[in-house]
Amino acid sequence: MLAIEVELLTGRYVATAYNDRSAAEWPPHPARLFSALVATHFAEETFAEEERGVLEWLEQQGPPAVHASDATLRDVTTVFVPVNDVGMTNVDAEAEAVDEARVALVDAREAGEKKAIKKAETALAKAEKRLAAAIARSTAVPKGTASAKAGAIVLPEGRVRQPRTFPSVTPVEPRVTYVWPSADLTDSRRAAIDQLLARLVRLGHSSSLVAARLVEYVGEPRWRPSEDGGRILRTVQTGQLEALDRAYEQHRETEPRVMPARFTGYTDQPAAAHADVTESCFGSDWIVLRRVGGPSLPITAAAGVARTLRKALMLHASEPVPEVLTGHSSGGAPSTHDHLAVVPLPFVGHSKASGALLGVALVLPRGASSDERLAVYRAVDQWEQIHRQEDEDTPRLPLTLGAAGVLELERVEWGSTQSSLRPATWSAPATTWLSVTPVALDRNPGDLRSREADKLQRALGEARETIARACQRIGLPAPASIEILPAAPLAGAAKARQYPPFPELQGRTRRVLTHVRLEFTHPVRGPILLGAGRYLGLGLFRPGRADD
Q1: Chain centroid to CA 114: how far?
Q2: What pLDDT does 274 receive?
Q3: How far apart (Å, rounded) are the C-alpha atoms in residues 510 and 527?
Q4: What's the CA gap between 344 and 319, in Å, rounded?
Q5: Which has the closest alpha carbon to 438: 492, 361, 499, 503?
Q6: Most exposed: 8, 230, 310, 495, by fewest CB within 10 Å?
Q7: Does 335 have pLDDT greater than 90?
Q8: Greatest pairwise CA separation for the chain in angstroms
Q9: Residue 379 has pLDDT above 60, yes or no
Q10: In the chain, pLDDT over 90 holds for what percent of residues?
C-alpha cells in the first residue's frame, strides 16, 4: 500500500477549479499532486534517475482513493494585480520567438530533413541573439537622465492592473491523504518518494504551503474512484510524465497552460453499499456532446436527433463502418450484439425543468472491445478534425436537422457542471427507476387506453411482461414491480402521445410508446435503456426515489 499525507500548513487550500475560474478545487486532485511532485523533481539541478523511475511507476498505479474532510468555500474577491514590468515587453516577445524556434527545431529533427534542420538551427540562433539584445537593452543603465514618466511606469503603482481571483477553501481538517491500496511500495521506491516529499513545498497556488510524508493509512477513504461517481477529479495514467515534458517544451512556463490529465468519477458512498449492485449492459464512460448553438429542441425530438447523429458518425468513420456504429452485421441484418447507443439528454426532474435537449451521449456497451471503442473515438475525432479552427481544442460540430436548422455540439472534455450531462445522473444505483423518454415496446400489447376493463388488464399485463424481458435483455433482473403510466413521471418530460411515431420509416412496424415506473428488489446500476428504441434515446430511465 502507498499512502501520501499532505498537510496544509496555512490551514487553507488555494487552487482554481478546472472548469470554473471563479470556483475553488476541493479535494485537491490527484493529478495536481503528481504535477507538484514532477515540478519538485525537476527543480533540482541534477535529476535523480530513481526519482524519475518512481514517478513513472506512480503514474501506472491508477486513481487513488482520497481522504479529505469537508471544506468551507471562502468568498471570492476580485483583486487587481499590476502587470509585469512593462519595460520588459520586448523581452517577452523575443522570448516567445525563441520558444517557437525551439519547437520548430524539434519538429525538424523528428522529420529528419537536413535542410530543414539547418534552417531551424539558424532561425533559433538568430532568435536567441535578438533575445540577448533585448535583455541587454532592458537592463542597461540609461545613458542620459530618465524622465519621471518613464520611471513611473516601472513602479507597481504606475502599471496597468488586471483582475485576478484566488478561490480558496478552508477544510475542517487541514490535511489530505491519497491512498493506493494495491501499490507495491518497495524499499527503493519508498526512499525515492521520501526524497520528493521532503522537498515538496506547495500544492496548487504558491500560497498553499504544504508538508508531505508517507503514512500507514488505515480506515475508509472519503472519496474513491467509481464509474458512476458524481464528482470528477483529474487523475494520471501511463505517459503522464512524458505529457508534462512535452507541455513544458511548448510553453516554457511563459504561456497559459492546461495540465494534462485523465478525468475520473469519484463517489463518497461506502464501497459496501455498491458491492452487490447489478449493472446494465450499457457503460458509464460516455462521450458527451453538449449543445452550444442552434435551435433549442424539445425532448420529443430525441429519436430524430439520435438517428441523424448516428448517420454523421458513420459518415466520418473508417471503412468498412464497424457494426458497433451501424447496429447491423456486414450482411445487413440487425446486430445480435450490444452496440453504440446515441442518447439525447434532456433537462428533466427539476421544478423548472423545460425538457429541452442539453446534449447527446454516446454510450458504449460495458463489454465493448478496445477496437470497437477506438472506432467510435476515431469517428468523433475525424468529425472534429474537419471542423477544427486554428488553435481550437474542441471544435463545434454541426448537425443538420433539416427544417429544424443546424444544431451545434461540442465534446465535453473534462466533465460537465450541468447535472443532466453527467453519466452519474443517469447511472447511479437505485431501486426505483422512472422513464424520461417513453419505452417503444418490442411487442404490441393491445390498447393501453381501452375503456373495457378486461382488454385494458390484458394489455397492461402484456406490456409488463414485455418490459420485464427488456430488462433481462440488458442484463438486469426482472423488476419486482412494473407500473405502466399514462403520463410522464418526471417534470419536464413529455407524454408518450406527444412523440412522433417510432420508427418513422414507412412500412416499418410502429411501436407502442409508454412511460414506465420500475421497482427492483435490490439496487441496480444504469444507464437503463429499454425497448426497440433503446439505441436511439427512447426508453431512457433516470434513478428515482421510492416515493416518486
Answers
A1: 42
A2: 54
A3: 25
A4: 26
A5: 499
A6: 495
A7: no
A8: 106
A9: yes
A10: 46
Work out whether strand 2-8 and strand 287-293 pair parallel, antiparallel, or are unpaired. unpaired
DSSP state of 159: S
Q: Which of 103-117, 341-355, 369-383, 497-511 has the lowest mean pLDDT?
A: 103-117
Q: Examine residue 527 and say whether the peptide bond preceding it is cis (omega within 30 degrees of 0).
A: yes
The arithmetic mean of pLDDT across residues 331-346, rounded, is 90
Residue 103 CB neighbour total at 10 angstroms: 16
89 Cβ contact partners less than 8 Å away, ≥ 6 residues apart: none
Give pTM, 2 decimals.
0.62
Name beta bridge partners: 408.
293, 398
Cα(376)–Cα(378) distance, integer angstroms: 5
Query: What DSSP designation does 223 have?
Result: B
Q: How far apart are CA 260 and CA 239, in angstroms?
A: 10
Look up residue 514 and give its three cell numbers.
409508454
CB-side neighbour CA atoms (13 Å) of 269 = 16
The DSSP element (H or E) to which 532 belongs, if any, is none
- Mean pLDDT value across residues 64-84: 73
Q: Higher pLDDT residue, 18 or 379?
A: 379
**Strand, coil or helix: 176:** strand
Helix (H, G, I), strand (E, B) or coil at 317: coil
Type of residue numbered 265:
G
Given a contact cutoff of 8 angstroms between Cβ atoms, the answer to whether 234 and 263 are in contact is yes
Judged by DSSP in three states, 88 sits in helix
For Cα atoms 515, 489, 474, give the angle at the middle one, nearest 5 degrees: 50
Q: Say how far residue 17 (Cα) sits from the centre of its chain.
A: 13
Q: Is 478 exposed, middle or buried (0-12, 13-18, 19+ CB in 10 A)?
A: middle
Three-state DSSP class for residue 531: strand
Q: Under 8 Å CB-to-CB from 256, ≥6 apart: which residues?
A: none
β-bridge pairing 513-525 and 278-279: parallel
